[in-house]
Amino acid sequence: MKYFFSVAVALLAAASIFAQTPDEILALMDRETSRFETEGFSMVMDIKVPVFGTFSTYVQSHGDKYKLSSNMRGEITVNWSDGLNDWEYDEARNEIVISTAGAILEDSTTGNLQMFNSVTSGYDFQLKSETADAWFFRCTKCRSNKRKDMPRSLDLVVSKSTFLPVSVKANEKGAVFTLRDFVVGVSEEEITFNPAAYPKAIVVDKR
Fold this sequence. Notes:
By secondary structure, the chain is an alpha+beta fold. It contains 5 helices and 12 strands.
């Protein structure tokens, strides 16, 4: 009897997931991604450019702090910021450049995060398909959305287990932008620049 009861509970739980409407799914996604602000998050940002190929950046962010780790054709760079100062490490030069905080994250990452933060308000969405693990949406920019910096359409995949985006993809001017592998929770310690980790690097202070 306990076995059959457990099976019934599992089936009811599964049915409740599959019964979610598109509005409910995206509302739950918004709820989960809102945790990024207080708990921090990490993700991978891919940019695919014709001829040049795909370039990936691993993004970690918490509050005003962030760390960006990039490997472009074997050239490794790491950027940190605490909101006041920026650090950029160039592995090839073994050089660390310190400067007053700029807008690297705001321009490259926060701007791209708008691709899913504004889905419910800036896009019309259609649930195209689903699997046992995820929902697949096609999001089309609303006529009322006059923002020129937002893509005309997005392909959004939402996890059924976490309600976090699995990926969000957009095509812009021949390039393909993909945000993927979202994880909630990043400590400030792991994204804070530590000079002791680069004892032999040349330091150039431009502040």
